[in-house]
Amino acid sequence: MDFNSTIFAAMVAEFGGVPKVYPITKDCLEEIQRRVEQAAQACDIVLLNAGSSAGREDYSCQAIENIGKVVCHGIAIKPGKPAILGLKGAVPILGVPGYPVSGILILREILQPLMEHLTGHSQVQKDRVEAVLSRSVLSGLKYQEFIRVRMGNVGGRLMASPLNRGSGVVTSFVKADGILEVPQGTEGYEAGQTVEVQLLRPMEELQRTLVAIGSHDPLLDELADLFRQDGACFLSSSHVGSMGGIMAVRRGEAHMAGVHLLDERDGSYNSSFIRKYFPQGGVRLVECVGRTQGLMIPAGNPKGIERFSDLGRDGISYVNRQKGSGTRILFDFLCKREGLEGKTIYGYDREEFTHTAVAAQIASGSGDAGMGIWSAAKLYALEFLPICTEQYDLLIPDSAWDTPMVQKLIALLRSEEFQRRLESLGGYTIDRPGTVRERLEVRYYWNFRMGYSYYYLDQEGRALRYFEKALEARPGDEDTMELIDSCKKGISLPQFSECFRERTENWWETFAEMEAELRQMMDEDKDHTRGAELVAQMQETLNLVFDEISFEMGFNGEKYELILTPEGDKVKLFELVYFQKHATKEVLEHWNILVGRQPSQNIGLRTDDGWDISGDDVQIWLEEQGENSFNISAYCEKLLPMLREAEGRVWWMLTTLTDQILGEIPHMR
Q1: In this structure, is residue 505 part of a structural domain?
Q2: Are residues 191 and 167 in the same domain?
Q3: Same domain for 482 and 527
Q4: Cα four-point dihedral sign 236, 238, 241, 242
Q5: Which ranges constitute the DSSP H helices of 369-428?
Q6: Is 100 helix (H, G, I), strand (E, B) or coil?
Q7: What is the per-residue pLDDT across 326-345, written as a single tens digit (0 to 9) for each?
């Protein structure tokens, strides 16, 4: 079946030309030559479709050479490398690779500019926009590569998700929203990197596109078709497996992820993974379908596969799914249950990214079995050995829930038309599609502490996201709003010219040069008259790293000590521990760098105004509250008179004494 001619003719017409399609020519050198000569006499440009490679029966290059001139055979672009540029007199001849995607790219990148040059009329250029890559793209240095991507606006960011890069997968162009160009000599782009993409669809459509990244299921294609029917919204899906989808939602790169992750401990699906990877809350698990998973095997079952354990037999070639996919997790669990070592199964390391890709490999004869869903087996007329029914759900962040795209999705899940299509696909059970099975509310304290930790590390951009989540959970909270304002100012006017990591590294180098002088000053201060001077000097240097810091200095009889105190602020521990861990070996020869006041054998507290409290004056006892918690109670009769005058001071003194007994960090816990 020739569909390249239909596609290429439509593209020629789009470029402003009049296509003339010749009948299919027999794969014979002489007949190809005659047909090309005939076309060169009648047309301004000749496209010779297929046969441009260097195989035994690829005659295109030889045919052009025999009747004219081959200017170039092979171009440093991918896909499209085997293209031929030739001439028959003044008529350009373009040898187009037979793989559809390669051919489409050659027409876009070579034929279109050539036609514009010959006609003097330029086509309207496609828009180019900046987008954020959802996953890394690797490319060889030898070629300029063109990668099809799916796109959509998620949380105010335009996201680009790479599609299958096979040169024969013509549907990847149908599904593509844009083309990402990787220049020659470039190894590719990292996930999260901002790249330039040439649009294939109007930007206005992308703003109304629901971005789904996660586990594959043919029902997503059915949903995409239902979305397109009224043109109000669109669905764009990329298949990276259930875990890849969870991570995409977690990074704010998708409106939705299909998931079907088995918890081996209790046989449940999805819930435990969502709680684990979203401790901050803010997501919903929406029920979709139950679906039958099993072994897909060739029609007629030529290898006599009757049970899962047969995969361990000699002579069985297996087609696996990629790591992180729910099907791969299920397969590994079944291997463990059956006592099979996955690595001993022939084909275990051969990975495909979708159920239909596995089914296609088996249908083509390149595999004897593969794990997948019934609907994929049915599509390729394969036999199917059912193993289990699993739950396929949709993970949706709260931030996307009220968008028109998601609400349309929920309506479609509940529609009779969608259920009719599922029945046609086969292998699905329906209970309450579109119902929220579980919702994790946004957790104020978790988000606030995450924001605070990034804030202290001078990463206001990251901190802002968590503070905004915290404010969502506790609207109107003044402390949170104040920190949000501070983050926004910090983004535009950074407090420090260097990041916290760089400041820490530089500080320890500086301290290593001055600490000997500091030790000498402490040794000479026998009567403790220079304490204020020593503290001021240390404070001045620490201010190069911290905007606010509390500390103590001393000598324990063996080493000098610098104690960094969080003063009850748990989040500040992030930066203090980071700072402590990067002390140089030279400094640690003479100094103990500690986070939090340490437990003391001889506790006591003496103030300038005459208060003298020893350990014997304080009683402390524990009261268990539960399995992992208890209350600390403290009583000091000497401090009772102070309660009438300065209750806050009593609290400070008791807290300090408790720190001395337990240590500051355990006390904070």
Answers
A1: yes
A2: yes
A3: no
A4: negative
A5: 374-379, 398-401, 404-413, 416-425
A6: helix
A7: 999 999 999 999 999 988 89
* pLDDT confidence tier of residue 432, bands split at 50, 70 and 90: very high
pLDDT band at 626; cut points 50, 70, 90:
low
SS3 294: strand
CATH number reported for the structural domain that contains residue 262 in this entry: 2.40.340.10
pLDDT interval class at 454 (50, 70, 90):
confident
User: pLDDT digit string (tens) for 503-541?
Assistant: 888 899 889 988 998 899 889 888 878 888 888 888 888
Within 13 A of 73's CA, how many CA atoms are on the CB side? 14
Same domain, 552 and 484: no
Choose one of 595, 623, 656: the last residue of a domain.
595
62 within a domain of the structure (yes/no): yes
pLDDT for res 578: 86
CB 549 within 8 A of CB 595: no
Tokens (6 digits) for 263: 């918890």
| Cβ atoms within 10 Å of 462's Cβ, excluding its own | 14
Residue carrying structure tokens 């998620």: 154
Domain identity same for 356 and 479? no
Residue 189, classed as helix, strand or coil, is strand
Into how many domains does the chain fold? 6
Evaluate whether residue 167 is within a structural domain: yes
Residue 255 included in any domain: yes
Least confident segment among 219-223, 401-405, 493-497: 493-497
197: left (phi over 0), alpha (psi -120 to 50) or beta: beta
DSSP state of 156: T
Average pLDDT, rounded, for the chain: 87
Contact 245, 239 (CB under 8 A): no
Q: Which domain holds residue 249?
A: 128-277
Write out the DSSP string of 423-454: HHH-SEE-SSTT-EEEEEPPPHHHHHHHHHHH
Q: How confident is the model at residue 392 (pLDDT cuts 50, 70, 90)?
A: very high
Residues counted in the chain: 669
Q: What share of the chain is helix, strand, coil (3-state, %, to 5)?
A: 40, 25, 35
